[in-house]
Structure formats: C-alpha cells, structure tokens
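Thread amino acids onto this structure.
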C-alpha cells in the first residue's frame, strides 16, 4: 500500500486550497494561545488598584510590630568587614559567605590587614564562594583604594563607595544603610520580587523598584524597610511557593495569584 504523507493527503483531499490553508494555520494560532495561557500574570502598574498611603503605613506597621529591629544576616565586625561581606555575597547566599568570613575576619578586619594577608591567602579563605578568584582580586584592590584614597575608612557617600572595585549600587545601599543608618533601599532578588508581587513598587529593573519603594515608604520606616522586605521575601513570599496563608499582609497584597 502506498504510504500516505501529509502532502499527498492534502493533494488528494477535496478541501479547496484556501480552506486547506486556513486549516493548516489553526494549530499555529492554538499554540500561541496556549503559550499565552501558561505565561504567569504580572502586576502591571496600570491594572492594579493603587495603594493608598494609609495601606502602605499599615503594611510597614505590621512588619515593625512583628520584628521591631530587624537585622541583616551577613555577619560582620565593622563597616569594612560589612563592605567585604557584601562584595563577596554577589550571586552567593549569606550563609555561604558567613561560613567563609567567620575565619577570614579573625585575621583581616581592616584594609591594611587584608592587604597584608594577600590575594593568594585570601583566595584560600573564600574558595567555597562562587567567583572567588575575581572577588579576591576586588577585595584586595578595594582595600588598597581605601588606604590610598580614604584614609583606611569606608566612605559615606554612594559615589565614593561605588568607585571601589567590586562595589555597585546595591553594595553602596547596604553599606550606607547598615553601617551609617542612611535611608537607602538595596534591591536584591527578594526585594525585587516582593516589590513587584505586592504591587508596592512594580518595576522591570532593580533601580525602578528601588526608586518606587523609596517614593512610597514613609520616612519613619525607611531605616528598616530594606530588611523587612528581604526577610519577607526570604521566609514568606517565597519565589516558587509563596506562603500567602501565613503572610502578615495577605489582605492588602495586590498579587492576582496570591493563594488566600
Ligand atoms: S499574600 Fe502571598 S504573594 Fe502577597 S506578599 Fe504575601 S506571600 Fe507574597
């Protein structure tokens, strides 16, 4: 028996050419629709009910009541070790960084001591952290720059911190907030997710979310807002399975897919 291929089947069929074309086009349209259907919903600024100042105040009052003095989880001894810990934490977990720095900071808690330790020995201390070769190079270079340009102290302005090797905007925000009490908002993966999901500060980039959060969060909460949002994202508003049922702000959250 002759093998019937798709081509011969179409040729043999009595379906007129135009109709056949239309039929052939259908599966493509269906595939498009189904892809759309599985695409996760995102909160778009124009489609959500805007937060009122009273609601935002309520959210942060609840965070404050639950945890009046939140702490960052990166272990450090002074502004310098905080700066080094933040530089080491890029694309690594706080727990992983702490494991390495506990011993490192016993021998090198100032820029001079870090330089004396040297890049090779520093690498040994931090080799369990991702990208440790580049990070070791940066930590030695930033220690040298702190000594030559800033008298061995961590500077207090964003531009100066960002001028240090390995330090970007997020590093500057963390250091300014935790070491010097500035009202900055460091946006990591957790803050980015929470800002978008809740609808508090939707944005396509960390900078958009940072500026959005700074705009809406009342000054009285800004010192701790960064930690409340990180901890909320890390322990409650989890990436894959947010724990909406135990979430403090589930009645106010604007995420269309929240589970309560
Ligand atoms: S209700 Fe759910 S999605 Fe909204 S903030 Fe809480 S945990 Fe996250």
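Threaded sequence (260 positions):
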């Amino acid at each position: 028996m002759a093998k019937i291929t798709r081509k011969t089947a179409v040729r043999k069929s009595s379906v007129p050419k135009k109709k056949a074309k239309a039929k052939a086009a259908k599966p493509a349209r269906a595939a498009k629709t189904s892809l759309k259907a599985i695409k996760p919903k995102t909160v778009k600024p124009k489609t959500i009910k805007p937060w009122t100042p009273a609601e935002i105040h309520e959210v942060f009052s609840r965070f404050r009541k639950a945890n009046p003095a939140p702490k960052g989880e990166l272990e450090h001894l002074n502004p310098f070790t905080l700066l080094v810990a933040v530089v080491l934490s890029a694309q690594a977990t706080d727990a992983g960084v702490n494991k390495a720095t506990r011993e490192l900071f016993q021998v090198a808690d100032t820029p001079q001591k870090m330089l004396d330790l040297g890049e090779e020995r520093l690498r040994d201390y931090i080799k369990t952290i991702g990208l440790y070769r580049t990070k070791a190079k940066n930590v030695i270079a930033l220690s040298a720059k702190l000594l030559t340009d800033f008298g061995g102290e961590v500077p207090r302005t964003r531009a100066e911190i960002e001028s240090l090797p390995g330090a970007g905007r997020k590093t500057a925000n963390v250091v300014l907030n935790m070491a010097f009490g500035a009202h900055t908002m460091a946006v990591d993966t957790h803050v980015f997710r929470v800002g978008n999901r809740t609808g508090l500060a939707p944005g396509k980039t960390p900078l958009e979310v940072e500026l959005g959060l700074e705009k809406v969060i009342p000054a009285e909460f800004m010192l701790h807002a960064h930690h409340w949002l990180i901890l909320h994202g890390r322990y409650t508003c989890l990436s894959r399975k947010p724990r909406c049922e135990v979430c403090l702000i589930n009645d106010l959250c604007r995420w269309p897919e929240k589970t309560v």
